[in-house]
Amino acid sequence: MNETLADYAARHGLRQSAARPPLRKYLQSVWARRNFIWAFASAKNISMYTDSRLGQVWQLLTPLLNAAVYYLIFGLLLNTSRNVPDFIPFLVTGVFLFGFTQRSVTSGAKSVGDNLSLIRALHFPRATLPLAIAVVELQQLLMSLIVLFVIVFAFGEPASFNMFLFVPVVGLQLMFNVGISMVMARLGAFNRDITQLLPFVMRTWLYMSGVIFSLPSLMEPGSKLAKYPALAELLQLNPAYVYVELSRYVLLGEYRDHVTNDLHMNEAGQLWLSAGIWSVVMLVGGFVYFYRAEERYGRG
Q: What is the pTM of this model?
């Protein structure tokens, strides 16, 4: 009998358990597990702090401590706060929003590798794992936003209609984070060494994203960055900068007025356009990129 196992399986209607289904069916399968994604993310979020005495409070303390360190080094010692109104709300907004993407990248890279036992035991769309990671980070951000708004209002920022625009900003950033988390999930699944490089990559990305300084201020006439307009344009297209700066535009009225009036750089429209493009391209591209390796996850 020369019949191969593959032919035998096909003749009897058998198929590989981890075979990649058509994209439409795969999307339906992921959507059908939306409750699992939320429950899995919530359980993971709670378990992250079970070994610490302060527990969930660290969701608030960690970004605050990071902001305090950056303020000490860059705000006081290096004086990057000059010409930036309300530097503390400016800095805290940058740290919180950049951290939202940073954690999605680093956790996404480990989402497949850290769940190999689950992948090998059960048949389910693997995309639910990086999706759950994005939900975890969203839940942590929502907790942090309580502190963010307290700081913004404490420094005299009045409530305004513009603040409602923060909701679509976070929505667009979430779309971007889902996509980049899926890209990193596939890369991390087949090359675990990438997690060792990510801290250096993320630190560099932070410094290039205007988290601790105002990029428009650095582009004032006579400044060093103004001598390199191509570099300035490239930095302005950086997706992390786009979401951080757009958040400041909608939350910090004094900073927005400073940028648009004093520096004559009304870039709000460009920021919204860039945010929308980055969100759609990364979400669609990241999902398809992850989906194309669906049958390979968990092998070996």
A: 0.85
